[in-house]
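Quick one, probably user error.
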């Protein structure tokens, strides 16, 4: 069975000192959630080391928000997968829509990063999702399919269990407008069907697909109850301990 996985994406928020305070409270708030839900937080690069220390011995894993595809070299300002692994990072969010829209990331580029992350011994959280115009134009499933195919190029059924995908409709991110559980389930089930075509049903059944986009304490339970929604990628609400811990505990 797929274990529910809730990850907080802090985006460009929290200094290392602020992170330490938040994490101390979060540790306490979710310490009783053991087997049912896997939990991670993705702070900015500058807070990763402090975060890893603050979470030692806890049930919360450390994720990063991005990395570079190359192992090392003349890439000023970039961070490699090995550097993250060395700090205790377990997951790397790749292809977030903010990176696609604001920093020109492509499926091809994300694919290279996925290879780098897996090679370094971490697991990718690969984000896909349509814009409002694409949804209104009836293109949602085509757009998401192309993103999944592009980002997963070169992998086979044997890699399936190492993937986490996140469906994040762009129009739902930071807008307070969540996809309905039906809209989300439709896309999640479509993605799982596509993974089945690519890798076969057994492997497709192991891939966890998170939903992201205005997940809050009051809508998490319904989203997480859907058959193909295996967790949440949480932005704004992950910055508040009460909200994030309520989401973590929402899985019935
Ligand atoms: P919000 O939860 O703030 O809408 O952000 C979602 C997101 O982008 C998580 O990666």
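Nope, works fine. Designed sequence:
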């Amino acid at each position: 069975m797929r274990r529910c996985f809730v990850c907080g994406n802090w985006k460009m928020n929290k200094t290392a000192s602020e992170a330490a305070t938040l994490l101390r409270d979060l540790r306490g708030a979710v310490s009783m959630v053991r087997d049912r839900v896997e939990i991670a937080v993705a702070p900015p690069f500058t807070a990763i080391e402090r975060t890893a220390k603050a979470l030692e011995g806890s049930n919360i894993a450390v994720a990063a928000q991005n990395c570079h595809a190359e192992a090392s070299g003349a890439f000023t300002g970039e961070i490699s997968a090995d550097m993250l692994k060395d700090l205790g990072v377990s997951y790397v969010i790749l292809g977030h829509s903010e990176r696609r829209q604001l920093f020109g990331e492509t499926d091809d580029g994300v694919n290279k990063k996925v290879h780098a992350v897996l090679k370094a011994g971490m697991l990718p959280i690969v984000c896909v999702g349509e814009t409002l115009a694409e949804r209104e134009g009836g293109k949602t499933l085509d757009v998401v399919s192309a993103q999944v195919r592009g980002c997963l190029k070169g992998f086979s059924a044997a890699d399936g269990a190492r993937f986490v995908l996140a469906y994040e409709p762009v129009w739902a991110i930071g807008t307070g407008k969540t996809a309905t559980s039906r809209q989300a389930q439709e896309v999640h089930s479509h993605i799982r069907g596509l993974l089945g075509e690519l890798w076969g049903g057994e492997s497709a059944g192991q891939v966890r697909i998170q939903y992201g986009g205005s997940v809050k304490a009051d809508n998490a339970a319904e989203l997480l109850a859907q058959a193909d929604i295996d967790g949440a990628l949480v932005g704004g609400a992950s910055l508040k301990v009460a909200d994030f811990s309520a989401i973590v505990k929402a899985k019935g």
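The chain has a mean pLDDT of 96.
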